[in-house]
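W.,

You were right to be curious about this one. When I first looked at the sequence I had no strong expectations either way, so I just let the prediction run and decided to look at it fresh. Below is the sequence, 445 residues in total, followed by the output.
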Amino acid sequence: MLKELDASLKTGKQLAEYIHNLSFADLPESVVHQAKRVTLDSLGAILMGLRKQEAQPIKSFLKGLGANPDCSVVRAGLKTACNWAAFANASYAQVYDCNDGHKDSAALGGSAHPGRTVIPTSLAVGEKLGSSGRDVITSMVIGYDVATRIRGIAKRPPSATQSSAAVAAYLIGLEQENTQFALSIAAFTSPKAFPENLTYDTNFLHCGYEAKTGIEAAWLAREGFSGPPMGDDRKLSTRFRERGLGREYEIMNVYFKPWPTCRMTHGAVEAVLALREEAEMAPEFIEEIQVHQLTHGMYITESPVDVDSYYKTCMFNLPYIVAVALIDGNVTEAQFTKERIADKAIHELAKKIKVKPDEDLDAVYPDQCRPTTVEIKTKKGEVIKKVVQNPYGDPRNTLDDDALYEKFRAWAGTSLSEEQAKDIRDVVWRLDRLSSLSELMELIA
C-alpha cells in the first residue's frame, strides 16, 4: 500500500504545494481586484440562470432533500448543505452560456470556463466555514489556476472538478499530501464527460455536479482517504513552476462575455452589431452574409435550428445568433425565449448566412481570441466587411469596472432591484475587508 501511495504523490506535488502554501499576502493588488470582478460576473450569470424555466426544478429538488441548512442558494429563499448549495449555484451559472472563460485553457485541454465551478464552490465552502473574504479570494485564485493549468490534449482531464477540490482543500486547511489526494479523488469521481447534446438540461446540471463532487473529494481526503495517481499530460500539465505557477495568476487571463452565447460566436456578433450601426442592415436589403470562422470552431454550425428549437441549441448556432443580432440590435436572454425563437423572420435571415472555415484564422489562434471576419453583400451589389481580432471582453479588450457592473445589472434583471444590485456590488468590491461572507450571502440569498 505504501508503494501505491508513493506513486500517487509523484504527480501534482508542485500544484498541491502551491495550494497549501499560498496566502493572501502573496497576491498582487491587481489579482485581488480581478477576483472581485469574476465574483460579480459569476453572480450575474447565476442570477440570469435561475430565472429560466428549465432551471426551476432545482429549487424543489433541494427542498425535498431535507439537507442541513448550512449554505445559501442564490435568490432561492432557502439554505441547504454546502455541497448542494454549490451544486445549485454552479448549475444556475451554466443555464445560459455566459460564464467567464480562458482561451488558452480551452484550446489546450483545460477548463474552458473556470468561474462556473470555482465561484460557487468558494462561496459555499467559505460560508459554511465562516472564512474571511481574504481566504475566499485566495481560494478563488487557486481555483482558477488549477482549472486552467491542468490540461490534456489526448484526453481532456476533469480539471473543473479538481479546481473545486482545490478550493475546498485550501479553505478547509488540508495538509499538502491530503490536498494531492483531494485532487486525485476529484479526478476519479468526477462526471466523466460533458454532455455533447445540448438539448437536455443535464448540460447545466453537469457543472453543478463538478462543483459538488470536488467539495466531497476534499472532505474525503480530510477524513484520511487517499486517491489514485493524478492523471497528467506531460506536455501541458507537468513542471507547473516552470510554467509560472505562483508568479503568474491565470485569473488575470480570463475573458468576460458581453453576450450569453458561445464565445466562438462573439467576433461575429461584435462585427454585425458594428455594421448595423454603420449602414442600413434591414433583412430585406441583404443578399448574403459570409462569416469566416476558425476551422475547429465550425461546431457552431453543426446543429440546425428552427422555430421550435431548444434555447441552448440556438446559443450554439451562429446563423441564428447573427440573424437575431441584426434584427434586434442586441443579444441577451430575451433572444432565447420560446417566443423569440419561434419568429420565422429570424430563420429566414439565418438561411442567408454562410459560415466558412478559414485556415488563415487558425494561424493566429489562440494568440488572438477567436478572430472573425464578416462580409455582408447587399442586393445592390455592395459588400461591407468587418474584421474582429480580439472580441470585446478579451483581457486585451476587457470590460472596465463600470461596464462589468452594467453587465451584472442587466443580467440580474428582475431578480434584483437597482438598490439591491448596488449593495451587492459594493460588498463585492470590499470582499477583502470582510471578516466572513455573511454580509454578502445575506444580500444574494
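Here's what jumped out at me. The first strand starts at residue 71 and ends at 72. And, maybe more interesting for your project: Residues 263-392 form a domain with the 60s Ribosomal Protein L30; Chain: A; fold (CATH 3.30.1330.120).

Coffee later to discuss?

I.
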